[in-house]
Write a structure and sequence with these properties.
The complex is a heterodimer of chains A (653) and B (168). By secondary structure, chain A is mainly beta. Chain A has six helices and 45 strands. In chain A, the strands form ten sheets. Chain A has a ten-stranded mixed sheet. A six-stranded mixed sheet of chain A has the order 41-40-43-44-38-45, with no helix packed on it. In chain A, strands 35, 36, 37, 39 and 42 form a five-stranded mixed sheet that branches. Chain A is globular, with a radius of gyration of 28 Å. Chain B has a domain at 82-168: Cytochrome Bc1 Complex, Chain D, domain 2. In chain B, 43% of the residues lie in helices and 0% in strands. The chains are: A mainly beta (653), B mainly alpha (168). Chains A and B meet through loops of A and helix 2 of B.
Chain lengths: 653, 168
């Protein structure tokens, strides 16, 4: 009996081998296809990618920078979360960046990056992102790839329909997902209905400096404002928000806020409201929020508490706010490159609803209303709807566009990207994603000028895509080539945190202006040492300030005596390198914060509170040169009552 | 048990030393002779002649880089030299002293050893010089592998440093 098995086994084995050889030799094997996909994403050693992609990090609180089509990660930009790698949020200079009306908040949930635009086209100056949990908007410089500004949003909670920018970067717009009492007060939760408000914030952006200013807030009915996008081209001046929970339920939301057949897309004519506010309209409300600004001259962030905000009752501005009925709990709210079509993805539906901006204006003109909600006109569905995309998928979420009249929509429940035609509303192609896709991104795909070569689909579930790493895995993303009629899956790569939305742009828009060093002669940090002879140590009570400089490969000074237990020692370290990619690090034993990573020409400060008598070393953490291991020094810590004078030296000088 | 006792003894000794006061006078280090032998430079080309790179005179060598030919006015331009002196303080003193060897060579007498072009090329692109100029390469070895930092100075700034070196 056993022998027979061996014979059968042997035959099977031989057959498989034979088939294997045959397949490998065949012309149309998956191997050959795979190699063509590989060629499309292969960026040879020394070559560079075609596009930058900025992927939100979700609950990491940070923004990650990738290259397309390689899927290689270049940088994690700390925004809302402390980041020991660089000392962001740990150094004295960057702690103020994380200040809020709730005090120091070292984390957030970063969802939606959007690159600044001029005339509806990406201009590559800044990228804006939202913090969802403790409502904040951040502006990141695309020269330094560092967070330059964070503004807290009062009266908001779950800052989700954010941070989307208008087509000349006039405003970055931030809407609240959770309705809350405005102003906040002690009241029963079940009196939500009719009492809570949804604040939509319009934050102006200074065209030169990018500086943010909370210009006004529109206090809408207490729905949930989920996502939003600006009008562009003909619809410039309007902004569109999807809503759910128009039921205004306050408990068991997954049932109770899914009762209505249609919720709304809110259309806000912000230019009209801006004019109203400029003419003295709106009410000043007392409030409290933080505005944090980082200066690349002083290498320091400062936090200012603001005490007032202008609020606008939308019913007081004629013809400025309307509701467009949209089935069914719409999530994504996307506007095509021409500005004519507003796509609502009813996440509990199989279909997409497309509204026409032109029809909307006509319906407003003709007063085609189907009632009102809290004084805001509801436009008649049939009079604004341009078409319905019968997709056959389930759970549509988000749509991006190419420049050839195609739209690409993700379907969460059926795990796919569906390509369809604007105006005919026909589905052209569909490709599976792995698995449960959320957002997708085409570089420039939410602007007037998309670069429709690749789409990146960002998934919520990874499962078997990569080698298992225990219960927790990074999320998967897939890249599709969309240059042809049919989409082609060409690459699969893990992402960091949980990417929600992303933004991308051609590499040449940013690469040439990316900053290489900070100039030492422009360093205005109050504790900078621009000349090694100024390096010194000063005592002020129990505060000790070390003015230290670094260059390959030593600290000046590298021997310090006269520090005592109970002192608070500030190491202010200036990196004297003026060459690209030569940071120095600083760490000292028992530091209760993180290391510092100091870029050329920059000054950063770390506080150290020595607790034990001894001679304690510090060293450079960034392998900077052949003599990096020698880049070290000592601090002598004496008992609290000792009378040793402060002294410092380098090489006996 | 014996081991335990000897450990205790050591500890006790350490404690005694610890109590000894703020300045500890102990025998310094150990006495193996590990001083460097005088720098020897590899002799693959005749011009090295056993002389350390820092003492060689290479006035005919203009180095490698964008500076091809510099004519020095017999008079020193004092304004330019002053500008160079300021730059020297901020951008060079981390590693150089005028009057003595520090991380890098001393600057006094530099123009008796090196051509003006060599000096400027070394400041403007030390990496290229170390790769392609024999003297720069030997200096790197002689100075423990401490590579000179590129300070991203302009040609004009570099020229003013050169003028300052003429005054030393």
């Amino acid at each position: 009996m056993k022998k027979i098995y061996y014979v059968i086994g042997g035959l099977l084995g031989a057959t498989l081998l034979y088939m294997g050889c045959n397949q490998a030799a065949g012309p149309n094997t998956s191997g050959a296809l795979a190699s063509s996909a590989a060629e499309k994403v292969y960026v040879a050693p020394g070559e560079q990618d075609e596009f930058y992609a900025f992927l939100s990090g979700g609950y990491s609180g940070n923004l990650t920078v990738y290259g397309l089509p390689s899927g290689r990660m270049f940088k994690e930009i700390p925004v809302f979360s402390q980041f020991p790698t660089s000392g962001y949020g740990y150094s004295e200079e960057t702690k103020p960046m994380l200040n809020t009306s709730f005090g120091f908040v070292p984390w957030d949930d970063l969802h939606h990056p959007d690159i600044s635009q001029t005339n509806g086209e990406l201009d590559g100056r800044w990228v804006f992102v939202n913090g969802n949990n403790t409502p904040r908007i951040a502006r990141i410089s695309l020269e330094t790839f560092e967070t330059e500004e964070i503004i807290e949003i009062p009266n908001s909670a779950g800052n989700h329909s954010s941070a989307f920018i208008t087509e000349n970067t006039e405003y970055v717009i931030a809407g609240t997902r959770f309705a809350v009492p405005v102003p906040q007060r002690d009241m029963p939760i079940d009196q939500y209905k009719g009492n809570f408000k949804g604040a939509l914030s319009f934050i102006s952006v200074d065209p030169e400096t990018g500086r943010l200013d909370l210009k006004f807030q529109v206090l809408m009915p207490g729905f949930n404002y989920d996502l939003s996008h600006p009008g562009r081209g003909k619809s410039h001046g309007w902004h569109f928000f999807s809503t759910y929970n128009t039921e205004e339920a306050n408990t068991l939301m997954e049932v109770n806020s899914s009762q209505n057949d249609k919720d709304f897309i809110a259309a806000i004519n912000w230019q009209k409201i801006e004019e109203y506010v400029n003419n003295g309209g709106g009410e000043k409300m007392a409030t409290n929020y933080a505005h944090n600004v980082y200066s690349h001259e002083t290498h320091t962030g400062t936090s200012t508490m603001k005490k007032e905000v202008v609020t606008v009752d939308p019913t007081k501005v004629p013809d400025a706010v309307f509701f467009l009925p949209t089935p069914k709990s719409p999530h994504g709210c996307d506007v095509d490159p021409s500005g004519e079509y507003i796509i609502g993805s009813g996440k509990l539906s199989a279909d997409l609803t497309v509204h026409s901006f032109t029809k909307m204006l006509a319906a407003i003109e003709g007063k085609k209303f189907d009632g009102e909600a809290y004084g805001i006109p509801i436009l008649s569905f049939d009079d604004v709807m341009a078409g319905i995309v019968k997709s056959g998928g389930l759970g549509p979420l988000h749509t991006e566009f190419d420049a050839r009249g195609n739209a690409y929509t993700t379907f969460f429940i059926s795990s796919e990207v569906v390509k369809w035609r604007l105006e005919t509303w026909d589905v052209v192609d569909r490709k599976p994603t792995f698995y449960s896709v959320g957002h997708l991104m085409i570089p420039g795909g939410n602007s007037r000028k998309p670069f429709g070569k690749y789409v990146v689909a960002m998934n919520k579930i990874t499962k078997d895509r990569y080698l298992p790493t225990g219960p927790e895995m990074e999320h998967s993303a897939q890249i599709y080539d969309i240059s042809g009629e049919k989409m082609e899956l060409i690459y699969d790569f893990p992402t960091h945190g949980e990417p929600h939305y992303a933004a991308g742009c051609p590499a040449e828009l940013l690469a040439s202006k990316s900053k290489k060093i900070y100039r030492l002669d422009e360093n205005k940090h109050p504790y900078a040492v621009t000349n090694p002879s100024e390096a010194r140590v000063e005592r002020n009570g129990n505060e000790v300030h070390v003015y230290m400089s670094t260059i390959r490969s030593h600290f000046t000074p590298d021997n310090i005596e006269g520090v005592k237990v109970g002192d608070k020692v500030y190491f202010h370290i200036t990196n004297h390198e003026q060459d690209f990619d030569v940071p120095h690090g600083f760490s000292i034993i028992g530091q209760n914060t993180s290391e510092l990573l100091i870029m050329p020409g920059q000054t950063k400060t770390s506080v150290w509170e020595p607790k034990q008598v001894g001679v304690w070393p510090f060293y450079c953490t960034d392998f900077c040169s052949a003599l990096h291991q020698e880049m070290q020094g000592y601090v002598r810590v004496s008992p609290a009552n000792s009378n040793i004078d402060l002294s410092w030296s380098l090489g006996g000088e | 048990m014996k081991i335990n006792i000897s450990i205790l003894t050591c500890l006790f000794a350490l404690i005694l030393v610890g109590c000894g006061g703020k300045t500890e006078k102990k025998e310094e280090g150990f006495s193996v002779n590990r001083k460097k032998s005088p720098e020897k430079v590899e002799q693959s080309t005749p011009e090295t002649n056993d002389v350390p790179a820092s003492q060689r005179i290479t006035l005919d060598n203009k180095g490698v880089g964008q500076i091809k030919d510099i004519t020095l006015d017999p008079e020193i331009d004092q304004a330019m030299a002053n500008a160079g002196s300021e730059l020297f303080k901020t951008n060079c003193t981390a590693c150089h002293r005028t009057d003595k060897r520090f991380i890098g060579p001393k600057m006094q007498g530099i123009l008796e050893r090196r051509s003006p072009e060599w000096v400027m090329n070394m400041i403007l692109d030390p990496q290229l010089m170390v790769e392609e100029d024999r003297c720069a390469k030997d200096l790197l070895v002689e100075f423990n592998g401490a590579a000179m930092s590129n300070q991203n100075l302009t040609v004009e700034q570099t020229r003013s440093l050169l003028e300052y070196f003429r005054t030393l």
